[in-house]
Amino acid sequence: MVIDPGVWSESEVALDGVDAVLLTHEHADHVDAAKLADALEKRPDAVVYTHPAVAEKFAGQWAGLTVPVSPGDAFSAAGLGIQVFGGWHAEIYREIPLVPNNGYLIEEKLYHPGDSVDVPQGVRIETLFVPVSAPWLKLSESLDFVRAVNPRRAFALHDCLDNDKSASLVDGHLTARSGCPYERLAPGSTIVS
């Protein structure tokens, strides 16, 4: 399973052998439509799960391979149980239209919020991926998100825009103030539950 193989992802590697793709929303840093279409040609049994608006937007490229899912839905993908949370992408600027954004809880343990800091209600999160760098985000929002979710551990997400200095600053604050173990993973890292 792959979540959000966007234009800044290592899509060729990430999508090799993919069975299921979860897309949080339509922005290019979360979905590289052309690379995903190429990967799906090689894996005709693979399925893309995404918000109905995103499925509709890319229907021509992934016809028959997309399953629309919305907040409140639950389904199985690549043998894993998935619950959908969220609703909308965080506001970038009042003149930029909001787009739907799904957050995904995998196996009732790991939560990926996409571009949102909406707290999933009624569930206990073991592992949280927390957005740490974005045009729509402040450090205080990342910290408040982690504290509100209260996971066992948190990992950086949406960190492509960070340089070494900003990453060090953000990581220092999240390590000191999030209330749980926090880490920024290197590409290719594996986490164990």
Topology summary:
Layout: E1 2-3, H1 11-14, E2 20-22, H2 33-42, E3 47-50, H3 52-57, E4 66-68, E5 74-77, E6 80-88, E7 100-106, E8 110-112, E9 127-131, H4 139-149, E10 153-157, H5 164-177, E11 182-183
Parallel strand pairs: 1-2, 2-3, 3-4, 8-9, 9-10, 10-11
Antiparallel strand pairs: 5-6, 6-7, 7-8
Unreliable sequence segments: none
Mean pLDDT: 93
Please state how the strands of the largest beta sheet are arranged side by side: 5-6-7-8-9-10-11
Q: Using only CA atoms, what is the Rg?
A: 16 Å
Alpha-carbon distance between the two ends: 16 Å
Structural summary, described in words:
The protein is an alpha/beta fold and 193 residues long. Helices cover 23% and strands 24% of the residues. The protein has helices at residues 11-14, 33-42, 52-57, 139-149, 164-177, and strands spanning 2-3, 20-22, 47-50, 66-68, 74-77, 80-88, 100-106, 110-112, 127-131, 153-157, 182-183. It has a seven-stranded mixed beta sheet with strand order 5-6-7-8-9-10-11, with helices on one face. The longest helix has 14 residues, at 164-177. The protein is globular and about 45 Å long. The two termini are 16 Å apart. The model has no long low-confidence stretch (mean pLDDT 93).
